[in-house]
Fold this sequence. Notes:
This protein is α+β, with helices and mostly antiparallel strands. It has helices at about 50-60, 65-80, 85-95, 115-120, 165-170, 215-220, 225-240, 275, 285-295, and strands at about 5-10, 15-25, 30-40, 45, 100, 125-135, 140-150, 175, 180-185, 190-195, 220-225. It contains 9 helices and 11 strands. The strands form 4 sheets. A 4-stranded antiparallel beta sheet has the order 1-2-3-4, covered by helices on one side. It has a 3-stranded antiparallel beta sheet with strand order 5-7-6. α3 (about 85-95) crosses α4 (about 115-120). The radius of gyration is 21 Å and the shape is globular.
Amino acid sequence: MQKVQRLLTRSHSKASERYVDVVFSYPNLELELSIPIEYRRTGTDIPDTKIDKYLAEVYEELNPNSWAQWQEEQAKFWKSKPGATTTKAFFDVLSGTPRWVCVGCELPTNPNWARRIQDLKEFGYTLATDTSRSCEQCNANKTHLMLLPLKRGGVSGYEKWSSDTRNRIIRLLKSYDAFEGKVGRKEGLLPDHKFPEIRWDHETRRESLNDLSDAEIVNDFQLLSNQRNQQKREVCRSCYQSGIRGKIFGIDFFYHGAEPWDVRFPKNGKAAEKGCIGCGWYDIQKWRKALERKLT
């Protein structure tokens, strides 16, 4: 029996995601799945030469024998999120045996279903997307979603920190809101990676952020509000896709390099960080000081 059969490779350009459609064959069960091989929420970016090895790892992770334990773990997780009832309703529809779910006729009625799916991704869940799939129920081509019962954070997980580490970063950076250029309320600030996650690869992530040195925190992080953090993500996503670096405050100024992405640097991996230097979104305070020097 062929355990893993590769079919098509697809892209979801809006989300900067790539998938491999596969058939996983287990004893007494055959699953048609879509496995992300480029998925920024978990930092997954699998080179073509390593896709087969990666699919073998995912095959083991998705063994139906582990689904009951996975459901128990998710029940505990959602119990710790009593305020997320709206998002949990979406999870309840999508969880179970992985399958394509039509957003038009199967998801809970909600005017902003995309935000709820974003929430699930931010919680660490792995979802595949097909933006034009024929639905047998509504007889139309609609966006379909598939939630895979992988551990939250993916097979190769996102960087994670404890609440103590988060508070330590905010305290060390003196609650300074880099976008506003002033001290803000610590409750409204988030540690932001200067080097955007969309350009990470599997070698960029750290297993844990709880042992960061003070120097690493000052070098690698800035503080933003949630709104500005989301805005930066969209700017960095656009840069990643278009090769045009973002302008903060609409000001056409880069303290190093120019508006086009420097093609000497790769799109992904630690070496890509050099291509971010000089962009206002990468290090807002350093950009602000460079602009002030230029003006004086």
